[in-house]
Prior knowledge:
This protein is mainly α. The protein has helices at 14-34, 40-46, 48-51, 57-65, 76-98, 109-113, 115-134, 138-160, 168-194, 199-226, 229-232, 238-242, 247-259, 262-271, 278-289, 292-311, 319-335, and strands at 2-4, 9-11, 102-103, 106-107. α4 (57-65) crosses α9 and α8 (138-160) runs antiparallel to α9 (168-194). The longest helix is centred in the middle third of the chain and has 28 residues, at 199-226. It is globular, with a radius of gyration of 20 Å. The chain starts with a strand and ends with a helix. The model is unreliable at 1-6 (pLDDT under 50). InterPro entries: Isoprenoid_synthase_dom_sf (IPR008949), Polyprenyl_synt (IPR000092), Polyprenyl_synt_CS (IPR033749).
Amino acid sequence: MTDVGPFGLSVRDQALEADVQAGLAAVEEGLLEATKSEVPFITEAAQHLVRAGGKRFRPLLVMLSAQFGDRYAPGIVPSAVVVELTHLATLYHDDVMDEAAVRRGVESANTRWGNSVAVLTGDFLFARASHILADLGPEAVRVQAEAFERLVTGQILETAGPQDGRDPVEHYLDVLGGKTGSLVAVSCRFGAMMSGADDTVVDVLTQYGERLGVAFQLADDVLDIASDSHESGKTPGTDLREGIPTLPVLRLRERAARLGLAEDIALCELLDSDLTDDARHAEALRLLRAHPALEQARQDTVRYTQDARSALAPLPECTAKAALLELCDAVVHRAG
Length: 336
């Protein structure tokens, strides 16, 4: 038994393992090629996060989804490069919006070169993704455009916040469906679509990806509170410091409103204070790590992974399906 992919996914079939490893290696080459520019500075900035590594979660899903058709079809690797470039581009933009100092264990692009360079580098990556996409046909362009619209809409909705009377948790889960679920769903869709899989299989895998994508982000929310920077590759509590309410915070506020416990209300007041102060930020993290809201957020993550597992039920039993199911377990473990 050997390990493949971002979570140390155990693969028990040598043919599947070889296909996934070869595919991910080709994606890595494709990412480096796609981020080259005639201007050396642009190459350096564009390859900053590529060379920092990463989970390559989306390309892995492309490779596994392609197993349900012709896994050697020529569009599979380029489509995986497209989704990863798109993801990387959003990270450059997210770090500017969050004023993040660390990304994937290295200095963020905005810290190193400033916000303008970081934003423009993200735009450069979007352009390169679009260039590759054009060779994959009009249907692929349409699918990616729709996903990108959902992604941006999710980001805008997060920035705007819930409308009056809207449940903040429901609003947040809708945001995640756009911000994260959309691109993970496209990863599965592209893998199946480019391999020529049956339309029913494409739809099943797209639904799976949507639900797994939300679960993956919820696990990140938990990790951001519960982990140290060594585990997560970024500064813990970044969203907390910026006042961005992730699910553990929303569950805390929901509980405070429902039960009216003094300690919950006090923690909410602390979160509403100036958390750019390091001492307050550390105290908020400490209290949240011990609060039942964090465990509730973990259970929400489990629920979404269970939904993802259920979505795969119509697919025939095979090693690729087993690997996709195992990814659900890996996401739960990530939030554990």
